[in-house]
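2024-03-11 09:14:02 DEBUG pipeline.ingest accepted 1 chain
2024-03-11 09:14:02 DEBUG pipeline.ingest length=201
2024-03-11 09:14:03 DEBUG pipeline.predict start
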Amino acid sequence: MARTFAYLRVSTAGQTTETQKQQIATAGIEVEDYRIMAETISGSVEAMKRPGFARLVDRLEPGDLLVVTKMDRLGRNAIDVISTIERLGEMSVRVKSLDLGDADLTSAAGRMVTHILNVVAQFERDLIRERTQAGVDRARAQGKRLGRPPVLDPERRAEIEAALKKGEVIAALARRFGTSRMTVQRIRDRRGKVNAPAEET
C-alpha cells in the first residue's frame, strides 16, 4: 500500500517547520507524524548529504509519495534538485511540490516543469551574484574597505604585543582587552613570523 511522507526544511535554528506542516494539511494531504522528516540545514547542502533527508530516502519504497511545500525545500541548486528527483523516480517514488499543483515531478511532464523552473531560479541566482560582485568591484575602485572592521585598533594591538613579549597569558589578555583568545593568538603568531630569522637559501 502506497504511503505518504513529507520533508520539511528550514535553514536556521530561529525558523520553524510548523508553517510547512500546516500548508500540507491545508492542501488536504494526510501525513502521519512519524512519516514527517523535519530538519534545520541550509538548502545549499546537497540533499543526499543532509542527515535527515538521507534517512527519509532509506525509508521510502516503490509507490510511496514524498511531499514538499516548495521546490527549494529540496535544494537551491538546480542540478542537485533534478538529480534528487531523478533518483527518487528510479526508486518509483512519486514527488509532489505544493507550489506546482498536483503534478508528479517524477513524471515526464513533471520533469519538464522542474527543469524550466530550476533553470529560471539558477538564472536569478547568477544575476544576484553578478550584481553583488559588481557592487564589490565598484566599492574597491572607490577605495572603500570591505569586510568586517578590525577587532582591535593599532594601539591596543601594540599593547597586546608588548604584554605577550613580557610573557603574559593569552587567556588573561583576551579577558583584559575584551577580545577572543583566537585574536590574541593571531597577534602572537604574526609577531613570531615578523621576528623569525630569515631562512638560508
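2024-03-11 09:14:41 DEBUG pipeline.report The chain has two domains: 4-120, 154-195.
2024-03-11 09:14:41 DEBUG pipeline.predict end
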